[in-house]
Specification:
alpha/beta; six-stranded mixed sheet; four-stranded mixed sheet; 7 helices; 10 strands
Length: about 300
């Protein structure tokens, strides 16, 4: 299967038919991916840098919050988004009681949604504490998230940015959620490839951003992984050749070229190319992590 076919198949993976799955009580950390174990993220364990990956909304369970079983749809998303990072870091990916695809479509905002997100974050924070205490061994770490996973990591960065763990942060790839300069006190947008301890944030659109778009806007941060600190168009490396990207006036990453103009905006135009945020820029992101890791280790 070509890389483009894999990219397009992501739409099917993330919008599959919902099937009932039994829920489970909270339990110790369950790792969807960990170094040394064959799995969807590759299992490499010989890099000097770790990646801590939190996957997007993908669970097909019927409950509001998923259980922590490493179900096939989670593995499919991790293989698509996280496995390429196995070339540059040891990938750790915990399961967590995320809001399911069903609840994302049916649960209204307000206290019920906030409570469900808080439950999800409880698992991510516990997994981070487990990782830091028992598995990190002093290695630098890159945080990688998308969509709901980025919501979790935004909270995590806020919790750790004034702790000693901040000194181990190579960078945070906070993709597919609106991140603002006011979200953090000490962690700022990456402005050059060799800068570390910073974050990358963007959401991709291939058409003009609608007025009611879910992402971007006046307060959003957009950092082009192919041209940090610039709003000029730059070649974006990924499965589609001849693609360029730029952070536009609406603070979203506008992509064009290749077949990007034909890619569907799912579930509607307000989401842009949300499901493909990481995949479209996959090689550029891996290159960036490689450069940032080398700079961090060089210091």
């Amino acid at each position: 299967m070509t890389r483009l076919a894999v990219l397009l198949s992501a739409l099917v993976v993330l919008l599959g038919v919902w099937v009932p799955t039994a829920s489970a009580d909270p339990s110790p950390t369950t790792w969807l991916c960990r170094p040394g174990d064959a799995g969807p993220c590759g299992g490499g364990d010989d890099k000097p840098v770790d990646c801590f990956y939190v996957y997007p909304t993908a669970s097909l369970q019927q409950s509001v919050n998923a259980d922590r079983s490493p179900s096939p749809e989670l593995a499919a998303v991790a293989a698509l988004q996280a496995r390429p990072f196995d070339d540059v870091c040891n990938v750790w990916a915990p399961t967590y009681r995320q809001l399911t695809l069903r609840s994302l479509a049916t649960l209204d905002g307000g206290p019920a949604r906030d409570a469900a997100l808080a439950t999800a974050y409880t698992d991510v924070r516990a997994a981070w504490d487990d990782y830091l205490a028992n598995h990190n061994d002093g290695r630098p770490v890159v945080l990688v998230g998308h969509s709901q996973g980025t919501r979790m990591l935004r909270n995590l960065v806020q919790d750790i940015e004034t702790t000693p763990a901040r000194d181990r942060l190579v960078s945070a790839l906070l993709i597919g959620v609106t991140i603002t300069d006011d979200d953090f006190r000490t962690v700022t947008p990456c402005s050059a490839p060799g800068e570390t301890g910073c974050f990358v944030a963007y959401s991709t659109y291939n058409r003009p951003r609608p007025a009611d778009a879910r992402y971007g806007g006046p307060t959003a941060v957009c950092t082009n992984p192919a041209a940090l600190g610039s709003t000029a168009p730059a070649p974006l490396r990924g499965p589609i050749p001849d693609v360029s990207a730029r952070c536009d006036a609406d603070n979203v990453l506008h992509v064009e070229g290749g077949v990007t103009g034909a890619l569907p905006t799912v579930p509607d135009a307000t989401w842009g190319l949300h499901l493909l945020d990481i995949t479209l820029a996959q090689d550029s992101l891996v290159d960036l992590v490689r450069t940032q890791s080398a700079a961090f280790l060089g210091r």
